[in-house]
Design goal:
heterodimer; A: 405 residues; Na+/H+ antiporter like fold; 17 helices; 0% strand; disordered C terminus; B: 386 residues; 7-stranded antiparallel sheet; 14 helices; 44% helix; globular
Chain lengths: 405, 386
């Protein structure tokens, strides 16, 4: 009789990486189920992450350790970095030179959403710093969602292109403004008055300089690697990782750095095309959406829900109103302008990363802003994404076979 | 709108007037691919008064611009330039590129969307995938005729020169991502339609009218628009419409081709020899030679049986057209055509040279867009994401 005792005993607890793998598998399945139900895949992927987050207790009973928080943070950061890089590459930045009304539209929609959220937070007796931080983060739409919907629905036309541009711009405003407000946190936390000027300058200029250096290096090496597709893709990935790591190590803004790296690379157009990157971006998007809520703490959500709902509605109303009002001067019918405004609804992981940067410096402010914004992001990464998908489809820009998510 | 009973052709209209229609590509600035933007572009152009007319075409990646009626080449060119300016200004505001060329070099026809107009929806329902493949871009030149009989005579006599017109305008060497080896690949797409090719050999307007009424009674056509012939009469305008040109890469070339057609018409309307159907014997062969080899194609005269290279045929014709060009004020335009033949600087050759230099069809489209904008043969180095 064979000796079955040579087999090892089952582990008492399965490592967190198994949980992570199961999370990704669940996200893929959730995305597919979502697609079959007519909603964007990213909604199903996000919900899978949420279920894992809420089901931590159940996971423990199955002997599954949670996903290591450090690993979640790094993976989410790298995935977001890659997505922002790609977003920076494809967003039509040069359009602003040819249609200045789009810049006014962008400034108006971001300002109105900022003021609407600020007013609500102040009305809820939040201190100025927390209210300003929440308002600045809420200016941003979600480049990740915009990119995911673009890949899934493949819109061709004015609504899809304007969503890309306006999402990129309002995200940049949010990063810059929250960076300036971080300087305020520095002042409060450390009392260093010179941080008002030097620290923001360092963060913004430093991030752009690192991005410029990364873009220069990438363009230089890509020219040497014409035709070597695998090497071009790997090189791009390495430079993105390098730029991300350098901005982190120097205490700069990796979000701004990645967006700028993409924008500066794309300026060289067709010569800088990297088709092999496409699959990696798809992987990064799945990781970003499934991990957004996987490690989130939802303990305060009942308290935050009311304010979060008001913030969501006010923010969306401000964006739709601004883009609709300025649609005609920007060369578009107001009805299409309204659809652009609706498609700016989504928020996603980068907004939470901005809040995390605050929490690292001032934990109470970070906790207050984070409790509400987590719920806002949850709503806007799911319902907001569905609204954006609906707006894109209603614009008639999604071709046959791509109109359903 | 329903066709009136019969098919009256107006008599006594201005002779040898001309007008031009150009089908243009609406292109995404990022990749250089065709994109949906025709409807938004037209809506924006129409907000302000502008020269000529702008209309949708069968898919939303195309628009058609057309001029008013002219007799002189310089006035036609001025209107085309004004029209180009209006289109480019609107396209810039929408971050679109617009360019000439008979076919987009790498678009996938299956991705095209039929424009939301009853006629286009009807065409798509009838022709299936051919309708989306019809996303090719041509120039149509109208020439005013004194009456229907003259229009029919001109139509048949012009058919002898169709290979010349194809070769001079050829600008569709690349299609669906490959070099087709044709200078003009566009007409192969048009040829798939059952009502394409040449008009029937009827020799006066009343016979043509009977032919049309019979075809309509049979349910084959509903209107003259259903004929996709290389040359067709256009009774509502009092013109003959020549439809074999690829859309050139510049408005200057478009105006020169119109002036050449006008001068040809002036020459041919003076010809009172009887029509002979033998002119059509080598028609499709000559047409193929012109599409495939451009000005180096060898064509056969159906009446004399003589063969000669197209470039020689054009230069011989130009010599016969000289007095008419003087009278019509189009000597400069015809001299430009002669220079084009001598140097073989057709658009298809420019496109192939450009591709050899850049090794990128996307870069070629961007260069075509810059050439359309500036009229310069150099075009842009790379306007992607600029």
């Amino acid at each position: 009789m064979p000796d079955v005792l040579v087999l090892p005993e089952l582990p008492a607890a399965w490592p967190g990486f198994i949980t992570l793998a199961l999370l990704i598998v669940s996200a893929i399945v959730g995305g597919e189920l979502g697609a079959r139900a007519g909603v964007p895949r990213l909604v199903g992927q996000s919900m899978a992450g949420l279920v894992f987050s809420l089901g931590n207790f159940g996971l423990a009973r199955l002997g599954l350790e949670p996903v290591p928080p450090e690993f979640t943070r790094i993976t989410l950061g790298l995935a977001t970095a890659l997505v922002l890089f790609e977003f920076g590459r494809i967003a039509p930045w040069g359009w602003l030179r040819r249609n200045v009304a789009l810049l006014f539209t962008s400034v108006l929609e971001a300002s109105l959403s900022f003021m609407a959220v600020l007013a609500l937070c102040r009305a809820a007796d939040w201190p100025w710093l927390s209210a300003l931080l929440a308002a600045s983060v809420c200016m941003a739409s979600a480049p990740t969602v915009a990119l995911a919907l673009r890949r899934e629905l493949r819109p061709q036309g004015q609504v899809g292109e304007r969503v890309l541009l306006l999402s990129g711009l309002n995200f940049a405003y949010a990063v810059v403004l929250s960076t300036l407000l971080l300087a305020w946190v520095h002042v409060d936390a450390r009392g260093a008055l010179d941080a008002w000027v030097l620290h923001p300058l360092y963060l913004i200029v430093g991030s752009l300089v690192v991005a410029w250096a990364g873009a220069w290096l990438l363009r230089l090496l890509l020219r040497l690697l014409r035709g070597a597709e695998a090497e071009r893709t790997t090189l791009t990935l390495a430079i993105v990782g390098l730029t991300f790591a350098v901005t982190l190590a120097l205490g700069l803004s990796p979000l701004l750095g990645m967006l700028a790296l993409g924008g500066l690379t794309a300026r060289h157009g067709t010569a800088a095309r990297i088709p092999g990157l496409d699959t990696l971006i798809g992987v990064a998007l799945v990781a970003a959406f499934s991990l957004t809520f996987a490690a989130a703490e939802f303990s305060d959500w009942p308290l935050a829900l009311g304010l979060a709902a008001l913030v969501t509605v006010a923010r969306l109303g401000a964006k739709v109103a601004a883009v609709t009002v300025l649609a005609l001067p920007a060369g578009l019918a107001p009805s299409k302008g309204a659809r652009v405004g609706l498609a700016l609804a989504p928020m996603s992981a980068p907004a939470l990363l901005l809040v995390q940067e605050v929490a690292a410096i001032d934990a109470p402010v970070g906790a207050q802003v984070g409790s509400v914004l987590l719920v806002v992001v949850l709503l806007m990464q799911t319902a907001g994404a569905m609204l954006a998908a609906h707006a894109l489809r209603a614009s008639g820009e999604c071709g046959a076979g791509h109109g359903r998510a | 709108m329903a066709e009136p009973e019969g098919l009256p052709f107006p008599s006594g209209g201005p002779l040898l007037t001309m007008g031009v229609e150009l089908e243009l590509q609406v292109v995404d600035r990022r990749e250089g691919d065709l994109t949906r933007g025709g409807a938004d572009l037209i809506a924006l152009i129409e907000r302000r008064p502008h020269a000529g007319d702008v209309k949708p075409e069968i898919t939303d990646s195309m628009i058609e611009v057309s001029t008013s009626v002219h007799r002189r080449h310089d006035a036609l060119l001025a209107e085309l330039q004004a029209l180009r300016g209006a289109v480019i200004r609107a396209a810039d505001r929408l971050d679109l590129l617009v360019c000439g060329g008979g076919a987009h070099p790498f678009q996938h026809w299956a991705e095209r969307e039929i424009a939301d107009r009853p006629r286009f929806v009807q065409v798509a329902a009838l022709y299936g995938y051919l309708a989306k493949q019809f996303t090719v871009f041509g120039q149509h030149v109208h020439v005013g005729c004194p009456d229907g009989d003259a229009a029919i005579r001109l139509l048949h006599r012009l058919s002898r020169y169709v290979p010349q017109l194809i070769a001079l305008a050829a600008s569709s060497p690349y299609y669906q991502g490959v070099d087709t080896s044709f200078d003009c690949s566009r007409l192969n797409t048009v040829f798939a339609f059952p009502l394409s090719g040449r008009a029937p050999f009827v020799t006066d307007w009343s016979a043509f009218e009977r032919y049309f009424m019979r075809m309509r009674a049979l349910g084959v056509v509903a209107s003259m628009k259903d004929f996709y012939w290389d040359i067709r009469p256009k009774p509502e305008y009092g013109t003959v419409e020549v439809r074999v040109f690829d859309t050139p890469l510049t408005v200057k070339r478009a105006a020169q081709l119109a002036a050449y057609t006008q001068a040809l018409a002036a020459l041919l309307l003076q010809d009172d020899t009887p029509l002979d159907e033998a002119i059509y014997l080598p028609y499709t062969y000559n047409r193929f030679q012109a599409c495939r080899f451009g000005l180096d194609g060898v064509v056969i005269d159906g009446l004399s049986g003589r063969s000669q290279p197209l470039h020689e045929d054009v230069l011989t014709t130009l010599a016969r057209l000289a007095p008419h060009a003087r009278e019509l004020g189009s000597e400069d335009a015809l001299e430009a055509i002669a220079e084009l033949v001598r140097t073989r600087s057709v658009d298809a050759r420019w496109q192939r040279d450009r591709y050899e230099r850049e090794r990128s069809l996307s870069a070629l489209v961007h260069a075509q867009a810059e050439r359309w904008r500036t009229g310069s043969s150099e075009g842009a180095r790379d306007t992607a994401l600029a």
